Amino acid sequence: MCLAIPMKIVSIDGTLGTVEIGGIRRKADLSMVDNVKTGDYVVIHAGFAISVMNEEEAMSTLDLFEEIAKKGEELDRQ
User: Concatenated DSSP letters for 11-77?
Assistant: First the structure.
């Protein structure tokens, strides 16, 4: 299963951006999204930004992912 993850753009060089989540930085192709700028949140899937989301949506999604991960850890301990 593949997930698309919200990540923050920290730099842009042409159509290539550096995106970050939790201190982890990756390169991503930004050519599929229009008018993005440093500080924007984009949804990354397979190395491509596929949509733009606002910070509130991004944080809500990341909080949900964290909650799911914690539940998984709890189940692993049972």
Answer: EEETTEEEEEETTEEEEEE-TTSSS--TT-EEEEETTEEEEEE-HHHHHHHHHHHHHHHHHHHHHHH
**8 A C-beta contact, residue 33 and residue 19:** no
Q: How far apart are CA 72 and CA 7, in angstroms?
A: 22
- Residue 26 token pair: 């990756």
Global pTM?
A: 0.86
**What's the confidence (pLDDT) of residue 77?**
82
Does the pLDDT of residue 2 top 80, yes or no?
no
Domain extents in the chain: 5-77
Q: Is 5-77 a CATH 3.90.320.10 domain?
A: no
Q: Which stretch of DSSP H or E encloses residue 10?
A: strand 5-13
Contact indicator for 12, 27 with CB cutoff of 8 Å: no
